[in-house]
Write the structure tokens for this entry.
Amino acid sequence: MGIGFLWVPLSLWVLLMVPFCLKVADKSSWRVGWLMATATILFPLALVVAVLIP
């Protein structure tokens, strides 16, 4: 019930970043696209998890 305040922004973030990462991968290489996806999608998720751990 209380996790909704995190789930909604994170899912919107992922939905916004996926087309950007695909565009980067299309213009350069798929390896660079995966690198961008890892950095831009998983890093904010890691920060949220780090904040939630007491």
